[in-house]
Each structure stands twice: as C-alpha cells, then as structure tokens.
Hints:
By secondary structure, the chain is an alpha/beta fold. It is built from four helices and 29 strands. The strands form six sheets. It has a 14-stranded mixed β-sheet with strand order 1-2-3-5-7-9-11-13-15-17-18-20-22-24, covered by helices on one side. It has a five-stranded parallel β-sheet with strand order 8-10-12-14-16, with no helix packed on it. It has a three-stranded parallel β-sheet with strand order 23-25-26, with no helix packed on it. A hairpin with a 4-residue loop joins strand 28 and strand 29. The model is unreliable at 11-30, 422-461 and 463-472 (pLDDT under 50).
Amino acid sequence: MRNFKAFGHAIISLFIISLSARCHGQVELDTAPMEKAERDALFSTIQGFVGNWWNGSDLYPDPCGWTPIQGVSCDLFDGFWYVTVLNIGPIHENSLRCAKNLEFRPHLFELKHLKSLSLFKCFKSQRRHQVTIPNANWENLAGSLESLEFRSNTGLVGKIPSSFGILKKLQSLVLLENSLTGEIPPDIGNLNKLKRLVLAENNFSGHIPDIFSALGDLLILDLSRNSLSGSLPLTLGCLTSLLKLDVSNNHLEGNLLKEFAYLKNLTLLDLGNNRFSGGLTLSIQEMYSLEEMVLSKNAIGGDINTLKWENLHNLVSLDLSNMGLKGEIPESILELKRLRFLGLGDNNLTGNLSPKLSTLPCLNALYVSGNNLAGELKFSMEFYGKMGTRFGAWNNPNLCYPLEVLPTSHVPFGVKPCQQEIKLVESNTNAGNVNKTFHSTASSGLMSHDPNDFWWTFPLIMLLILNSYIGL
C-alpha cells in the first residue's frame, strides 16, 4: 500500500513539473521580443502599402505577440521573433488593405528571414498610380524567400525584374492577372528549386526562353493568356516531373513537340487558341497520365486516327474542336472509360456517329457540330435525356434523327429529321397495278421535291381511292 502511495506521489510530481515547464515555455514564446530593427522594417513596409495612418498601436506586446497582424506570421530565431510571411491585400475581412498611393519601400528587403511575400489586389489603377516591381535589393532575400506572388494587380506594370534570378531558394513564383509587359527574362532559368511558375494573364510578349533544362523539379507551368509568340522550346521535354502545362491563348506556332513523350507525369496539357500546325504528333500518345487535354482552336490538321487514343486511358476531358482534323471518329475513343467531355466540333470529320459512344460510362458532354458526319443518329432516348443541351451535332448537313423514335423534347438542336418512305399500294384496277413511292419530310408534311412537279398528284390519289372503293 505504501509503495502504491509513493508511486502516486511520484506521478503527481512529474505531472506538476511537466505542466510548469510547459507553461514556462509558453510564457517565453508569448513574451519573446522582436528586435527593433525588425519591427521598424516591418512597420515601414506595411505603411508603404496601406498608408502612414497605420502604426500598429493596437499590437501587444509586439507584431508577433498575443494580437498579431492579419497576414503576418513570425518564427523564432535565436530567441527573437522575425517575420517569415507577409500577405497584403483583401484575402480576409480583417486583412491589411492597400492604399491608393502605395510604394515598395526599401525596408521590405531588410526582413532577412522572410519566406513568403504576397500582394493581392493592391495595385488597382491602370491609368493612375501605376507601380512597377523594383529591380534592386532582391539579393537581400536570396537566402530566405521561397514564395513570391503578385495576384490580380491591374495597376502593376513594367517588366519582370531580371534580379528575380538571384532568389535561388524560390519554389513558387506567381505573377497572375497583372499588367506586366516585356519578355520573360531568361534569368528565371536559374531558379532550380522552382516547383510552380505561373505568369498567366499579363501582357508578356516575345518567345518563351529556352530555360527549362535546369528546372527539373517544376510541377506547374502556366504561361497562358499573354501575347507570347514563336515555337515551344525543346527543353520543355526536360520537365519530367511536370503535372500541368498551360500555354493557351497566346500566338505560339510551329509543330507539336516530339519531346512531349518525356512528360510521363503530365495530367493537364492546354495548348488551345494558338497557331500550332503540322498534325498530331505521336508523342502525345506517350503521355499516359493525361487527364485533360485541350488542343482546340489551332490549325493543326491531319487525320484524327493518327494517334492510338486507347493509350490515354486516364483522359477525363478531351477538346479537339476547331483543329481542321479529318477522318472518321476513331473507335479507340471508346476505350477511354473515364472520359466526361469530348469536343470534336468544327473539324472535317466524316462517317457515321457511332451509338457506342453512349456506352462511355462517365460521358456527360459530346460536341460534334460543324463537321461532315452523315447518316442516322441511333442513340437511345435515355442518352438524349441524359445529355440534354450538352449534346451538339448541328451543322452536319447529312446527319439526321429518326422522327418516329424521338419525342419533340429530345430532338437534337440543329439536326434535321430523316426522310421517310411512304408507299401507296393499290389493288388491281382497270389501269393495272399501281405502286408509287413518294418521299416526304415528316416534320413539315410537305413533299421533298419541288411542289410544282406534283400538281397532278392530288387528283390521281383521289382517282385511285375512288377506283378502290368501286372495286370493293
């Protein structure tokens, strides 16, 4: 019994000691100081973006204490708080909002432990108060900065600073939806730790620099919605870890790269709305991981049956519209069991539209309009009901639907009804056997031939009916 009590006292003592140590450690964290130089640099940086009215007077005991600044995060280094994250802009309701007249102050580059800098919707005016990204002093952050983002700043103009190439620790560079201009600096090729490079929706021009041989860790490359021209650089084939490649909505030209075959991990390829040509390259069918591929709005041309589509068995979305493709829709597409969207519109495709497409278990959008498809649509009513307006087959002059099978609510838009044969078979009369066949269009009830050619048909039919009645 005494041993049991002694053991209990020991357990309680250890608990009290550990609790005391925990509380003591928490007090140290809460009361850890921030160096005056760090504090002054932070306050000046924030004032440059939000205005001098802000003085941090409501912070206690310092910017990283019990009442931290929204958008600012700190870490302890050698017993002192240092700023590691700085997010300016209306990300949250209580985030720091940018002023109309704002500036990059040099104190920003004195935050020597800064890992992440983000400016969101700060530079708004495209005419007044335009701001450029400073080219100097980025070397001061080369030892710490891992993420740099400028998003939705329509008043942010000028070029990408070549000094960004000094930021050797940078893993994410996002310049999205700004008004930046000029060419992409080749210095970005020095950032060999980059995992994400997004330069989309700016006004960049010129060729894409051939800088990717040292960026083997890159996972996301998005250069879409700019004015880039020229051909794709061959070193894109070095990005063997790449998951997403989007260069859509530019002025790029030339053939599709054979080097695409090396991008085995790519899940998204978007080359849409450019000026590529030269036909479908066989390297595409080597990208087994592709889930979404958009090649639409390019004059690529060639035969759609060039590729073994069954190789791309992970495809969920395939957009090949407006490419000048010819040939019949390949049966191998039926092997794409995960396919949800198939866009083949505005090409030169021929042949019939196979009803087997309805057996694709996940398909919920099919567009084949603007081709030369022919014959009768043989999909079930269930298929039309499921697809609704997501089935498009208009502008195929020789394609039709069977009128007797489909109710009006399921008639595909822009597709004409198939012509029906109506046979008038009469019994023997004094005039002999009469077996006339007329073609009519079921939707209108009018003869398909010129009405002037059949002025005599009505009295003839009446005569036949009268003879048949007399014969009875």
